[in-house]
Each structure stands twice: as structure tokens, then as C-alpha cells.
């Protein structure tokens, strides 16, 4: 819900959109980890995060989210290294994945359309992981 700078002893800094794994809970605080900072465990306030029911998350949408986060680091590196063709190609695929992810999350597609879009997303993810 909000950025958290982790300005307490053993605080875990979080940005909006970060996922966390909760290890312990108190009245006002959680202790956990963030996949973006894999070896760091720390505290963060309960009021700064939104809990999701993972049983309702579409696995293709979840994988797409993780892949886009991973690819964003590669995309930045390609920019810095001035690899223009790879940078532009990856950008196009990332934008297409973002649009497909948005459509899947909107829940306005029929089952057939959803399945077809999921197959396209998986195909793009496979292309990018080569």
C-alpha cells in the first residue's frame, strides 16, 4: 500500500508492489522477507501492506509478474550496455506481456479467450527465457 523505508532496528525496506513472505506476526508488525532482497529478513508495519489470497491468483498471471520483474533488470542492463536491438526487442515483448497480464486480470474474457491468451503469454515467456 505504501513505501516503507525500514527506519527501525531490523526494518525491511519495501516499495509499493513488492511481494513479501510473512514469517512472524505481532499486533502491529510483520517479520518477513522480500524476494527482491532474498537474504534479508526484517520488520515492516502491517498497515503498509495488503494481504492477498494466493489460492485465487491465476498461476499464469503470477508467473508473468515474476518474469516481468526479472526481465526489467535485464532490460536495464541492455540499456546501459547500449545493446539497442536486444533492448528494443525485449521492450516490445515486455509491453505485450503487460497488456496480456492486464487483460487476464480484468476477468472480462471468456474461458476460451482466457486459455488462448494464457498460451500466448506462456509462449512469450518461453521466447524470452531462451
Automatic annotation (TrEMBL):
Residues 1-54 form the SH3 domain. This is SH3 domain-containing protein. One of its GO terms (biological process) is small GTPase-mediated signal transduction. GO terms for cellular component: cytoplasm; plasma membrane. SUPFAM superfamilies: SH3-domain (SSF50044). One of its GO terms (molecular function) is guanyl-nucleotide exchange factor activity. Signal peptide: none annotated. InterPro entries: DOCK, DOCK_N, DOCK_N_sub1, SH3-like_dom_sf, SH3_domain. Keywords: SH3 domain. The keyword Ribonucleoprotein does not apply. CDD domains: SH3_DOCK_AB.
Amino acid at each position: 500500500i505504501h513505501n516503507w523505508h525500514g527506519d527501525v532496528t531490523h526494518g525491511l525496506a519495501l516499495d509499493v508492489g513488492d511481494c513479501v513472505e510473512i514469517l512472524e506476526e505481532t499486533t502491529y508488525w510483520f517479520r518477513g522477507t522480500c524476494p527482491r532482497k532474498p537474504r534479508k529478513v526484517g520488520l515492516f508495519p502491517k498497515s503498509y501492506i495488503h494481504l492477498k489470497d494466493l489460492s485465487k491468483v491465476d498461476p499464469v498471471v503470477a508467473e508473468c509478474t515474476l518474469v516481468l520483474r526479472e526481465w526489467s533488470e535485464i532490460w536495464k542492463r541492455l540499456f546501459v550496455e547500449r545493446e539497442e536491438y536486444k533492448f528494443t526487442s525485449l521492450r516490445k515483448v515486455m509491453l505485450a506481456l503487460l497488456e496480456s497480464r492486464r487483460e487476464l486480470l480484468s476477468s472480462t474474457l471468456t474461458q476460451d479467450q482466457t486459455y488462448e491468451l494464457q498460451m500466448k503469454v506462456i509462449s512469450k515467456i518461453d521466447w524470452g527465457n531462451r
